[in-house]
Structure formats: C-alpha cells, structure tokens
C-alpha cells in the first residue's frame, strides 16, 4: 500500500513540475538521508523539466521554473523518502 502511495506522490510531483516520473522515482529510490544535499539524477531531471507540460507554471517562464524546481526538489525528495521509508 505504501508503494502505491509513494508512486502516486511521485506522479503528482512530476506532473506539477513537468518532469519525467520514472526518472523522479529512480532519484527517490537512490536518495540517501546520509547525504541530504545530494539529489540523485538532478541534472537529468532538470533536462526533462517541461515548463509547458507542468501544471505549476507560477514562475512564468522556463528559467524561473527551473530555479524553483531546484529549490523545491531536495525538500520534497527528503520528505517523501522519510514518509515512505
């Protein structure tokens, strides 16, 4: 049941930010609490970020979107890993 909730959480975040859900899931699985400042596959995730597909376009443009995503992703991934581990 927890795996289903985790998958749904990944899908929601990926849709919100326009990133690849499969890669985000891989990043979450590889994330380690012992290295809280390191987000696995962050460069690849940023490359997949599609501002036009993101449901959250509050930044107004792709650059602002990437900046916000760069700040939000480490927080989300740490909370999500803790929640479902």
Automatic annotation (TrEMBL):
<dbReference type="GO" id="GO:0004519">
    <property type="term" value="F:endonuclease activity"/>
</dbReference>
<keyword id="KW-0378">Hydrolase</keyword>
<protein>
    <submittedName>
        <fullName>Restriction endonuclease subunit R</fullName>
    </submittedName>
</protein>
<keyword id="KW-0540">Nuclease</keyword>
<keyword id="KW-0255">Endonuclease</keyword>
């Amino acid at each position: 049941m927890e795996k289903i909730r985790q998958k749904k959480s990944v899908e929601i975040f990926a849709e919100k930010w326009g990133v690849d859900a499969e890669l985000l899931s891989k990043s979450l699985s590889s994330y380690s609490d012992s290295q809280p400042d390191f987000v696995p596959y962050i460069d690849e995730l940023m490359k997949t970020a599609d501002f036009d597909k993101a449901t959250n376009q509050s930044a107004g443009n792709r650059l602002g979107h990437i900046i916000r995503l760069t700040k939000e992703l480490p927080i989300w991934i740490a909370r999500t890993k803790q929640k479902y581990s």
